[in-house]
Amino acid sequence: MVEVYNATSSVFGAATVIGVMSLSTFVSGMVASLIINNYKLTQVIHVAGWFRAVFVLIIGGLLLHITPVTLLFLYITLMMYAFVTAWYQPARFALLPLIVSKEDYVKGNGLLVMIQQTLMTAGWAIGGVLNVLVSFPYLIIFTALAFITSGVLATAIRTNERLEKKSVKKHAWKKVWQIPVVRNITLMETFEGMANAIWTSALLLSFTHVILNQGADVWGFINAAYFTGAILGSVLVTWQAKLLEFRIGIMIGLSGVSMGLLTLLFSMNDIVLLALLLCVLMGPMYQARDICQTSILQDAIPADERPNVMAARSAFLKPWNGLMVMAVGGLADIAGVQTIYIAAGLLYLLSACIAFQSKALRNYEIQTEEQVVEKEAEA
């Protein structure tokens, strides 16, 4: 987006990057929801790694000299990159239940999130340094090699072949709405998609300037504070996994309430240190909710439908989240950045209300493998 904007001096041109990728994600998600289960999940991740590496190299080459022609090819390549990525995420989601037992879903997801957040935090810091010390072509090559390494490592994963059954031909969208907890979590994420848009870099920078009356240095500290909280949250979830599993649906609701209240406090505060503290506190709450939701979805969706259903959900949620980033940015110009943050806090509380009012979600319990076998035997 930055390179396109610098080359064209067009906000629309830069925003089109999000638009074409969102469109491609939607189309890819619809296709993936129908046929992804025809392949082994590790094969999907392996192939996606190689394809993403190739597309990154092409994108890097096109960015070296942007003209109207190369810009068109850049958008096309970005669409292909987004198309492949839309297959990767559902396959990755469905992989964990084939590796760990049901009683370890929360702990396994917590561990993965902890590693991911740590690498993201380190990536922001290291990426900034590399951007100064290393020339652009080498960064592109490094990124491509990282994707290839990811794809190769996927082939070393050993899954439970018995659980990786091929899906019968059902429309995945029906499963999204037929399973109560999946339907309610999807509705929650729809509202949260609007709320989460306030944490994009541009809007957060505007809040730092307008409300906190500070510069980009404080904006960087706020980002770091949230990442610190996110890492702490994933550590706590992994450590206290059994406690969260006891009332996992209630935990989702409580996390939503906490996010709502902390966001409202953040929106009405103009003290820098308090803003940093609130961001640190948001990290554990949001990570606990995210990990619990992922664990419930992995448990509630039948094993042979997991990749398809998640692809169908992504086909809606990913473009929706992208559109909300642009919509909220426009509303901030009209209503003011503080008003948008207050509205986001209320949306988090509304999302929590969905969790509490849903009996299926409120009372959800992840059953052990032994409990599942006993129920099947009784049936």
Can you describe this structure in just a few lines?
The protein has 379 residues and is an all-alpha fold. It has helices at residues 2-8, 11-35, 41-63, 68-95, 105-133, 136-154, 172-178, 180-196, 201-210, 216-239, 241-246, 248-267, 272-300, 306-335, 337-357, 359-362, 369-378. It has a single domain (2-365), classed as MFS general substrate transporter like domains (Growth Hormone, Chain: A, Up-down Bundle).
List the helices and strands and how they pair.
Blueprint lengths: L1 H7 L2 H25 L5 H23 L4 H28 L9 H29 L2 H19 L17 H7 L1 H17 L4 H10 L5 H24 L1 H6 L1 H20 L4 H29 L5 H30 L1 H21 L1 H4 L6 H10 L1
Keywords: Cell membrane, Membrane, Transmembrane, Transmembrane helix
Subcellular location: Cell membrane
InterPro entries: MFS_trans_sf
